[in-house]
């Protein structure tokens, strides 16, 4: 799958506010497409570069290898990476990204970077590999700074739910994009809203999951939107999962509470069919059911018709 090179300008707009503590890049420092005279910002090199530009091309070609050895000798053997991690909304300055994911992304970047300060292909490989994890909606900057530190900035996707397809769980972002997790590091049970039995399988390329690609079918996105609405009200925290198994047949979403009761929501938000009450009425019905703990006594309740239907034939 081909990828576009990273832009040589920093994107503006919503992105991580936290800046790297690494030293600032001088004007003209490289992103993913540096010219040679931009690749290192040390003062001796800048002086040499000013002489180099007046030399004929053959002199440049002969001088390149000694120059690279000279400049490379001033750099550490192992490059460092400095991510601008996403910050919590509470202005604490701390990141919400778990340490195992931070280590995963750092290892991916380092595995594609060399200690050569002129290694332009390595920057592009690192950018492509990080984009392929799904964690960035856009990757704005992969830039080598003085001291052989590579600065990485971008717009982060926020995980919002876990999708369970058959026996496997997948962490997804707002648009249903799958986010890569470290091996043997599953999301802790109960820490994320759970979406069950989507109509489509996760996006793949051969046997590999395509991280950063949205889940097909639209039902996962409908469940994410509904969870987003429910999470505004603490009373709805008892909704533990949304089951999509009936979606292909009826177009309905089914809520599962912490008591195991199934509450049929009906069509997704904004897609109500004839005979369904409004979203606000469904929310009011759900609020009444949970406040009275009817879900603890009944296995199935339908809240989308004009009259709430309670199946009393099979008590929970």
Q: What does this 3D model show about the protein?
A:
With 316 residues, this protein is an alpha/beta fold. It folds into two domains: 121 residues, no CATH class; 157 residues, Cell division protein FtsQ/DivIB (Rossmann fold), CATH 3.40.50. The strands form three sheets. An eight-stranded mixed beta sheet has the order 5-4-6-9-10-11-12-13, covered by helices on one side. Strands 1-3-2 form a three-stranded mixed beta sheet, with helices on one face. Strand 4 and strand 5 form a beta hairpin.
Brief sketch in words of this structure:
This protein has 7 helices and 13 strands.
Q: Helical content, roughly?
A: 25-40%
Strand order in the largest sheet: 5-4-6-9-10-11-12-13
Shape: elongated
Alpha-beta classification:
alpha/beta
Would you state the CATH class of the largest domain?
Answer: Alpha Beta
The Cα radius of gyration reads 26 Å
| Beta-strand content estimate | 15-25%
Low-pLDDT residue intervals, each spanning 5 or more residues: 1-64
SSE pattern: HHEHHEEEEEEEHEHEEHEE
On the 0 to 100 scale, the average pLDDT is 81
CATH architecture of the largest domain: 3-Layer(aba) Sandwich
How many structural domains are formed by the residues? 2
Terminal Cα span: 49 Å
Give me the CATH superfamily of the largest domain: Cell division protein FtsQ/DivIB
| Sheet of most strands | 8 strands, mixed
Number of strands: 13
Query: How many DSSP H or I helices?
Result: 7
Named CATH topology of the largest domain: Rossmann fold
